[in-house]
Every structure is written in structure tokens, then in C-alpha cells.
């Protein structure tokens, strides 16, 4: 008997929670689980069942998502390789420019120290080193070394 009374009390307590009311309060529509003056309970209908082919469509969508993710990973890997290749090329260019700058500096020092018949040849060598540096290392505008002749 006690058990039956408990079940009835619990079911009576759960009944109002399943009711819904549509109220108009100051021009604003409000939905509530407690009745308001002049409100009638709303009849809530169950949602529609998913279409028969929903599982099939879900699997197709999952497959499409996996394919897009695979393509994205391939694309990102390709971009990473291109960036690495560009970084290596930039490092090679930078090392070459450092070497050319050093050779230019040495040629300018040799031209400044040269005397007699060796002076014109040393100045010409320094000028050519400067031209080679300027042509090859334009990206290092702030670091250009001018000839001292």
C-alpha cells in the first residue's frame, strides 16, 4: 500500500512538469510550466521520426567529413614542405650574401692598401665585388656595403 501511495505521489508531482503554457505578458510571449491568467495548456506534439535513410545519410556525411579532413591534412603537408623549401632557399641566399659581403670587404681593404701598378686592378676587383653583392643581395637593403674607393 505504501508503495502504491509513493508511486501515485511521484506521478502526480511529475504531471505538472509535462504541461506547458503560453502566456502574453505586456506584449511579450512567454512560455512557462506554471499556468498564468487566461492561458490554456499547450498541446506538445512529439517530434517527427528521422527519415528512413537517416543512418545511411549520416554515414555518407561522416565519410565526406573524413575525406575533407584527409584532403586538408594533405594540403597542409604540401604547404609545410613548400615553406621548408623556401626557408632552405632563403638560408642559402643569406649565406651567399654573407660570403659576398666578406669578399667585398676584403677587396675594399686590398684596394685601399694597394699602391703603384696594383692599385687600378685592386679598385676594379673591389668595384666588381660591390656590383656582384648589389645584384645578388638586393633583399639586404639595410645591410649594403658600399665601395670605399
Which radius of gyration do the C-alpha atoms yield?
42 Å
Q: What strand line-up does the widest sheet have?
A: 1-2
- Spans of at least 5 consecutive residues with low confidence: none
Q: Estimate percent helicity.
A: 55-70%
Gross morphology: rod-shaped
Kindly name the structural category: mainly alpha
Distance between the termini: 116 Å
Average pLDDT, all residues:
83
- The count of β-strands is 2
Number of helices: 3
- Strand composition percent: 5-15%
Describe this structure in words.
By secondary structure, the protein is mainly alpha-helical. The chain contains three helices and two strands; from the N terminus they run αββαα. It has helices at residues 2-18, 54-113, 118-136, and strands at 21-25, 28-32. Helix 2 runs antiparallel to helix 3. The mean pLDDT is 83.
List its salient traits.
single chain; 149 residues; mainly alpha; two-stranded antiparallel sheet; 64% helix; rod-shaped
Brief characterization of the structure:
This protein is mainly alpha-helical. Strand 1 and strand 2 form a beta hairpin.
What's the arrangement of secondary structure elements?
Layout: H1 2-18, E1 21-25, E2 28-32, H2 54-113, H3 118-136
Antiparallel strand pairs: 1-2
Signal peptide: 1-19
Biased composition (Basic and acidic residues): 43-70
Organism: Noviherbaspirillum aridicola
Amino acid at each position: 500500500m505504501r508503495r502504491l501511495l509513493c508511486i501515485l505521489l511521484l506521478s502526480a508531482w511529475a504531471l505538472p512538469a509535462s504541461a506547458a503554457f503560453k502566456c502574453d505578458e505586456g506584449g511579450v510571449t512567454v512560455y512557462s510550466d506554471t499556468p498564468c491568467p487566461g492561458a490554456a495548456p499547450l498541446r506538445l506534439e512529439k517530434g517527427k521520426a528521422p527519415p528512413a535513410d537517416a543512418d545511411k545519410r549520416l554515414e555518407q556525411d561522416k565519410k565526406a567529413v573524413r575525406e575533407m579532413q584527409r584532403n586538408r591534412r594533405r594540403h597542409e603537408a604540401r604547404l609545410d614542405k613548400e615553406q621548408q623549401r623556401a626557408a632552405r632557399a632563403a638560408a642559402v641566399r643569406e649565406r651567399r650574401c654573407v660570403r659576398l659581403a666578406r669578399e667585398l670587404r676584403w677587396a675594399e681593404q686590398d684596394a685601399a692598401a694597394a699602391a703603384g701598378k696594383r692599385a687600378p686592378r685592386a679598385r676594379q676587383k673591389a668595384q666588381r665585388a660591390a656590383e656582384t653583392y648589389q645584384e645578388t643581395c638586393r633583399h639586404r637593403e639595410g645591410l649594403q656595403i658600399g665601395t670605399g674607393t
